[in-house]
From TrEMBL:
One of its GO terms (molecular function) is DNA binding. It is found in: Nucleus. CDD domains: homeodomain. It comes from the Eukaryota. Residues 16-76 bind DNA. Residues 14-75 form the Homeobox domain. Its main location: nucleus. The lineage of its organism: Eukaryota, Fungi, Dikarya, Basidiomycota, Agaricomycotina. Keywords: DNA-binding, Homeobox, Nucleus. It comes from Candolleomyces eurysporus. GO terms for cellular component: nucleus. This is Homeobox domain-containing protein. InterPro entries: HD, Homeodomain-like_sf.
Amino acid sequence: MQARRRLFMERAMRIKSLDNSPVNDHQLHVLRMVYDQITMYPPESWMVLIAIVIRRAFKQVKNWFSNERQKNKEGKNVRTETKEGDKVRLRPLALQCPQWSDDFFEEVVMIYDYKVLMDLRANDSSN
């Protein structure tokens, strides 16, 4: 598992984007879903996965969550542990899943990312 995480971190660190560039609609939808429905405090391994999926620099994903927590401090969180043993604070809705893991989180984010892309394309073609 550590080798896989290291590989993903290397991949995420190779993603280049302008430091002050705002997130686009697609990226914002995915970031907001994770923040609002899963966790305000994703572990580093999950932020790496988000960075890869939305093609945004890891540092920018990390900063987005930090900035968002400063702006919106409300929201209930429950402390739990992932399958890998990471301590994480999940939203109550996310606790409906019996066991979170890096693999499960990656699947959730990738499925939602695909849905967002299809919705945005459908909206673009109807305009």
